[in-house]
Design brief:
about 500 residues, seven-stranded mixed beta sheet, globular, disordered N terminus
Length: about 500
């Protein structure tokens, strides 16, 4: 008898909680894990369950120095809860599980399942096997068993979705362990990607984000160097798809045909996240980044010429081993020249297993901190100046859910402009749902958001708003005991703020 049948027989529904760390790939993988568990009869625990679920899954990241300490600390806090809750199970997956497969159960013997980045589809089976055999199950695949998009999914948003176009990475950046854990790049067939996008649009999704560890290298695995630009153009032919974004590209693979596709495809948004990492040619060489400052700024110049209103964001690492004051000044120079709308800024930390972790000339913490503060101050100033240029513009916003923490108190709603800037706007008299589109005039700019304090100029109800309303109504109508929970994020995790805890490894 299956676990689903047993649950129905005794009238008990087992709940699950997923804790996600790291990059967008992990966020998307967690949507797959949620879909798998719900397909197996589990229900999502309420928000704030904090370990009070029957199954707690950690989807881990391995690219920060203290990733393992964070995991084991959280596992330690769950140990007494598991003792007090018969039948509770704990699973650990993701990059850290792929890396530390042999040590997790030794350090935390109360963990029931350890699985890797290549076999997330096995989670329900491994949980059941651990329950029946009453011993931990550790199963790590060395290569991808099935492309994640073939698995069931519980999307966080009814109107915006991630779509994976590739997994893995062929780069060898000295600060990044991801290629060792995610494997070499493997591309999906274009027809499969477009079929998934069309299915999502049919379900009410109006915004998709194409996702890859090195998204614009798409095509290298299938022998077509212009495949990514062709994919963007193909997305432009899908009726009902209003917004297309992608993350994260690599400067090495950013070609003129991609810029042309962005400029000429109306539903590809005027937004580009282009990781810099360092402005110093010396440091870029030590990082094994296959471009230099001149090449990077040349890409920015071409994008701005083709798409004048594009908002460009980036990732920057401060304090890479051997970085001199002159090297850091070169980074500041690029920031001044590129005038990024926002930036993910990171203090370098050792990633165990990477060449950079063994390099000489590790920079003292106090020097890294001082440089980091200078960089953040400069980028804050530029972000504010660039946002001030938006005042007076009329923008179409896709209404978001959960992005304005003060919306309730200020009687505002929040939405994303085409260039992905966050805009808080006055709540109109008529009903507006997440996924709908409003037209507003920007009246005020702050470094990380815009305000539209006047009346809303127009409201367009959309199929995406219908999809959100349908999901919300169905969730509210679920009988007691089936704890589905409402999606807490309207669109996929917004791109950069000044400093984040993302992996910064693109």
């Amino acid at each position: 008898m299956s676990s689903i049948d047993r649950s129905r027989e005794v009238g008990v529904t087992r709940s699950y909680e997923i804790r996600t760390y790291g990059c967008q790939m992990n966020v998307h993988d967690s949507e797959r894990l949620a879909g798998l568990l719900e397909d197996a009869g589990y229900v999502r625990a309420p928000e704030g369950a904090d370990g009070d679920a029957d199954v707690v899954v950690f989807n881990t990241c391995a690219v920060r120095e203290n990733a393992d300490n964070r995991l084991y600390g959280n596992l330690g806090r769950l140990a007494p809860k598991k003792t007090q809750r018969p039948g509770m199970q704990i699973a650990v997956g993701g990059c850290l599980a792929q890396k530390d497969r042999d040590t997790i159960v030794k350090k935390a013997p109360w963990v029931d399942v350890v699985f890797g980045t290549h076999n997330i589809g096995k989670l329900p089976v491994l949980l059941e096997r651990a329950r029946v055999q009453e011993e931990a199950q550790v199963e790590i695949a060395e290569s991808l068993e099935a492309f994640p998009s073939t698995l069931p999914t519980r999307r966080e948003s009814a109107y915006a979705a991630w779509v994976s176009i590739s997994v893995g990475c062929n780069n060898t950046c000295t600060f990044c362990i991801v290629p060792a854990l995610r494997g070499k790049e493997k591309d999906r067939r274009p027809g499969d990607i477009l079929a998934e996008v069309e299915t999502l649009v049919g379900e009410g999704v109006s915004e998709i984000t194409l996702l890859g560890q090195n998204v614009n290298a798409y095509g290298s695995d299938i022998g077509d160097r212009e495949a990514f630009g062709k994919l963007l153009r193909a997305c432009g032919t899908i009726d009902g798809l209003e917004r297309v974004r992608f993350t994260s590209p690599h400067p090495r693979d950013f070609t003129d045909d991609v810029i042309a596709a962005m400029a000429e495809t109306p539903n590809v948004m005027p937004q580009l996240h282009m990781p810099l990492q360092s402005g110093s040619d010396t440091v870029l060489k030590a990082m094994r980044r296959s471009y230099r400052q001149e090449r990077y700024l040349g890409i920015i110049e071409k994008v701005r010429a083709a798409i004048p209103h594009a908002a460009i964001t980036t990732d920057i690492i401060v304090g890479f081993p051997g970085e001199t004051e002159e090297d850091f000044e070169q980074t500041l120079h690029v920031v001044r020249e590129a005038r990024f709308a926002q930036a993910f800024t990171f203090q370098y930390s050792k990633r165990p297993g990477t060449p950079a972790a063994e390099m000489d000339d590790q920079i003292p913490k106090e020097v890294v901190q001082a440089r980091y503060e200078r960089l953040v101050a400069l980028q804050e100033e530029i972000s504010w100046e660039e946002n001030k240029k938006q005042v007076g513009r009329t923008l179409e916003l896709m209404v978001a859910e959960g992005e304005g923490r003060k919306d309730g108190a200020t009687h505002r709603l929040s939405g994303r402009a085409p260039d992905n800037r966050l805009v808080h706007f006055t709540k109109p008299d008529q009903d507006v749902r997440p996924g709908d589109v409003v037209t507003v005039e920007v009246t005020y700019a702050a470094p990380h958001h815009l305000l539209a304090e006047g009346p809303v100029l127009g409201v367009r109800r959309t199929r995406a708003g219908d999809a959100w309303e349908k999901r919300t109504t169905e969730a509210a109508a679920k009988p007691a005991g089936v704890m589905l929970g409402l999606p807490k994020i309207g669109v996929p995790e917004p791109l950069p703020v000044a400093a984040t805890s993302g992996c910064g490894c693109d």
